[in-house]
């Protein structure tokens, strides 16, 4: 049985994925922006215990993994320039 919290999380994820794709389609987000967002989510997951916004460490790791997956999809589907190193 799916709990209401899990369902809300899945619904939020669908909204996030759709929003990121829409913003990329409209060129409001660049591929470099998506890469930066992926890095920031990963950094937050790596420092979950020091995060000023308290949340579950497992949730932040899952978020980082999901953001990497979303970033990969958007990069393959919409292309664009990578961030300059």
Structure notes:
The protein is mainly α and 85 residues long. The chain is 71% helix and 0% strand. The protein has three helices and no strands.
A few lines on this structure:
The protein has 3 helices and no strands.
Layout of strands and helices, then pairs:
Elements: H1 4-25, H2 31-46, H3 57-78
Task: Give a quick set of tags describing it.
71% helix; single chain; mainly alpha; 85 residues
Strand segment count: 0
What is the alpha-carbon Rg in Å?
Answer: 14 Å
Task: Indicate the mean pLDDT.
Answer: 82
Q: What kind of sheet is the major sheet?
A: none
| Helix/strand/pairing category | mainly alpha
Give the end-to-end Cα distance, rounded to a whole number of Å.
Answer: 46 Å
Q: In one word, what is the shape?
A: globular
